[in-house]
Amino acid sequence: LAPDEKQKQADEYLEHAVNYMELEMYEKAIEQFTLAIKSKGLSPSALMACYLLRGFAFLDLDREKEAGLDFKMAKDLAINDEKKATIEYSIGFTYFSRGRFDEAMGYFKEAVRLSPDDPVFRNDLGRVYYQQGKYLEAVVHLDKAIQIDPEYGLAYMNRGLAHFALRDWAVSAKDLKMALELEPDIIGKEALMRLK
Fold it and tell me: Which residues of 113-149 are buried (b: 16+ CB within 10 A; e: fewer)?
């Protein structure tokens, strides 16, 4: 096939794969990602995304080893620390959303190492510490997230929850109120009524 035809075919495989992911048809998604990779028509960034997404599909099928190999390929294709950090974060978030906090911790720590001034990475690292009952460590990273972005309502909410767990009621209430001021829909109305 001509290069343009290879790219078009690869894009079609990738589109089908993403559609299968949305339908939670992971085996079919893996087949399509594999065809896209083998087509040799993907740009380097699309190839990186393809490996990452196929890794998620493997993870959804509890095929950890294959997921790990694809995650490594995606990281190897990343052209700079910012992209590597985003990949680390994405993998960590996937583990976090599955309640696998130990695995998430390692990826979030690496994302923060690669991109220490990203408030989202700091916030979610703080969330992992919170989920593990390490509230003081959570506060350290949530403080940093807020220092980086003083308008980051979610970080205030998470820090408020950590202070609540530490029984620091006044600081907790202050942070939760700030979270509501910055992002009024962040906490349900019921929680707002309790703060008043």
Answer: ebbeebbbbbbbbbbbbbeeebbebbbbbbebbbebb
